[in-house]
Amino acid sequence: SVAKEKILQRRSLQLRQQQQDWKESSEGKKMLEFRRSLPAFKEKDAFLKVVSENQVIVISGETGCGKTTQLPQYILESEIEAGRGALCNIICTQPRRISAISVSERVAAEHGEKLGESVGYKVRLEGMRGRDTRLLFCTTGVLLRRLLVDRSLKGVTHVIVDEIHERGMNEDFLLIVLKDLLPRRPDLRLILMSATLNAELFSSYFDGAPTMHIPGFTFPVRAQFLEDILERTGYRLTPYNQIDDYGQEKSWKMQKQAQSFKKRKSQIASAVEDALEVADYKGYSLRTKESMSCWNPDSIGFNLIEHVLCHIVKNERPGAVLVFMTGWDDIHSLKDHLHAHPLLGDQSRVLLLACHGSMSSTEQKLIFENPEGGVRKIVLATNMAETSITINDVVFVVDCGKAKETSYDALNNTPCLLPSWISKAAARQRKGRAGRVQSGECYHLYPKCVYDAFDDYQLPELLRTPLQSLCLQIKSLQLGSISEFLSSALQPPEPLSVQNAVDYLKIIGALDENENLTVLGRKLSMLPVEPKLGKMLILGAIFNCLDPILTVVAGLSVRDPFVVPADKKDLAESAKGHFAAGAYSDHLALVRAYDGWKDAEAQQAGYEYCWRNFLSSQTLRAIDSLRKQFFNLLKDIGLVSNNSETNNKWSNEEHLLRAVICAGLFPGISSVVVVQIVMQNKEKSIALKTMEDGPVLLYASSVNGSVPKIPYPWLVFNEKIKVNTVFLRDSTAISDSMLLLFGGNISKGGLDGHLKMLGGYLEFFMKPELAKTYSTLKRELEELIQK
Ligand code: ADP
Ligand code: MG
Q: So which domain of life are we looking at (predicted)?
């Protein structure tokens, strides 16, 4: 090892020489000049001093001041300068893979090297790093995964956790683990970086760690809300009875069914109107946050965005435009939409760019550069442009007001699909992006009153996502007792919700009595979906009925593709009912509708099919793409093969599908009792009750709500909503034996334990005779097992 030390020494000297050469080259000098202009540069010496004297420090600073690109680099450079270049090992985590990649590229360039030499990156399934990589940018998930196999982070000298103000689940999670690790690794340095000024919270979490602020400067930005925009630009917001749903409109035009087109438009309009509770702001309903909840930037918002962009291009001073959208899907369709516009699609006047994960380096360059010849740069981005990346020449910001919140997944970081309103803090941050080089303008595409209803800050992810998945991750990372671990979080969740989550995981068989992961639990922890959906996927794979189960799970994760216009309620319901014929299942109705759509798509008749059957093609497309992702995840963990025939050997067995759905949704069960009611032309009606709520009702949109009789004794349901009474949403009818064999967890405590647990249910629903059926079943099973 003396030899090894010599090699490292030589390598360190080499690195120092390289660094000096680069700084003296003309390109290096230019780069250095830019870096020196950043606010972080003034704090460089103070920063390095605090790092050398403290184990933990918290840094805050205005977005764009140079935290991400400069601070890790200062550490690297000073280590190289001190002749320890080959010994240091710096890890900087990013909440998103996109920023990990783009930041590492930038830092490598600033350091005068190719990516993968001293500076590299690693994200899930992808990376660029070498033996000599000393500064690694990775996603928080990647570092968590490394901790799984390397509990003490051997050889790592500095851990930098970036964007902690976002309070992402992974970051909060990582901080608990690191807090526990620090005493065992006194030489390890931890640097926390945050954009806003909540540094105190983190400092006190780490026993009063020193904080440091990098002062920055931004120019004032004028905020305009929807009412100002309408006033100023003279735009007539389309009254709701003329709303164009972008996707639908195209389909109608394609069909050239002018007559029905008009009718259909007014149907959708009145549905939207109902939902929006028409207010009297200029005759449009834009009163509250709730009433705006179906405002969706990827449908009615497109025309407004287009209008605002036109206004800027035609009338405003030079400067780039940054448009905040909710996700990659809408960025994509908006880009297509704008490309078709005579002015915005004119490449001699407008440079239209989308900021996304798989941007090539040339695309990235375009985003950061100033276009030539008076061309207006318009960048479409997601909320990652709020803090993770900074485009300097932005003068105009267009804010749609929504973002897709990320759901919890400690290892994979998969975003959840539902866009929701952003917080006031996020809206302010978006606005601030317009004032980097001069004063700017921000167009918020929602009324001021909606902004006023925003939350001040987004709740930490740990407190707004279901704890079940988190508990599984804690177990799979072998972090000990769940409740003990979570009680040491920055803002710990309620003990009762932790207990509920643990109980639930025991009932479904993911944890055993002693809170240890079962085989099922281990597989579930590898799937970035709610445990109930994960269980359905796993069973769908095991029982070779994969395709329909993929559809059910994707459907439950996106939203219902069936649309119900207010004045065509009956028609829409009968269209859905038609799919459910004989199935008594919303889930199976979805499977049939999706399959029909796929066939129609193959014959270029997808739009027509949707139109005829009251389906949203946009939602079906989202389901389609999610199905593929789920399939790949199952393949990753080795549960399915590439052979579609094997995977789908039993896909046509609806009884099996019912059973698998039951296995996933249990303990969401309700009994079905038929009662005679001779009233209001109805002879029979269905009464339902659940163990927790007593009598419950079905949602009007459920196919089981409109049938006179359900020839099954039970319904399993996905979700219940309490209004005055409790309503069940999507449900599937199941038989006794499906419940007995698939409800809960047969492996837990053996068959007897299973019966004991189910016994409580059976007794409650006054079906003790089922226990006898069960004993018979049990005996038969045991005989089978013995054979
Ligand atoms: P912070 O992390 O404090 O928000 P960054 O370190 O990300 O700031 O960025 C500092 C500066 O570097 C910003 O002004 C930004 O414009 C510039 N910058 C970052 N990445 C690039 C890039 N890929 N190309 C050109 N400039 C960049
Ligand atoms: Mg940053």
A: Eukaryota
Q: Is the pLDDT of residue 292 over 50?
A: no
703 or 756, greater pLDDT: 703
What is the CA(71)–ligand 2 centre distance, in A? 10
Amino acid at 128: M
Helix, strand and coil in the chain, % to nearest 5? 50, 15, 35
Q: 63 C-alpha vs ligand 2 centroid, how far in Å?
A: 6
Residues with Cβ–ion distance below 5 A, ligand 2: 67-68
109, 111, 113, 118 alpha-carbon torsion, rounded to 10°: -120
CB burial of 681-699 (b: ≥16 within 10 Å; e: otherwise) equals eeeeebebbbeeeeebbbb
Beta strand 350-354 with 682-690 is unpaired
Q: What is the SS3 assignment for 695? A: strand
pLDDT at 476 (0 to 100): 87
* CB-CB contact of 306 with 338 (8 Å): yes
Nearest ligand, CA 67: 1
Instruction: For residue 171, give the 3-state DSSP assignment.
Output: helix
pLDDT the model gives residue 673: 65
- How far is the C-alpha of 340 from the C-alpha of 346, rounded, in Å? 9
Q: Is 165 in the pocket of ligand 1 (CB under 6 A)?
A: no
Give the closest residue (by CA) to ligand 1 atom 7. 68
Q: Examine the pLDDT at 294 and tell me if it is beyond 80.
A: no
- Averaged pLDDT score across all residues of the chain: 82
ipTM (interface pTM): 0.99
DSSP state of 571: H
Q: What is the largest CA-CA distance in the chain?
A: 94
Position 373 confidence tier, pLDDT thresholds 50, 70, 90: confident
pLDDT of residue 723: 67
* CA 456 / ligand 2 centre spacing (Å): 22
Which two tokens mark 184? 């065992």
Q: Is 38 in the pocket of ligand 1 (CB under 6 A)?
A: yes
Q: How far away, in angstroms, is 194 Cα from ligand 2 center? A: 8
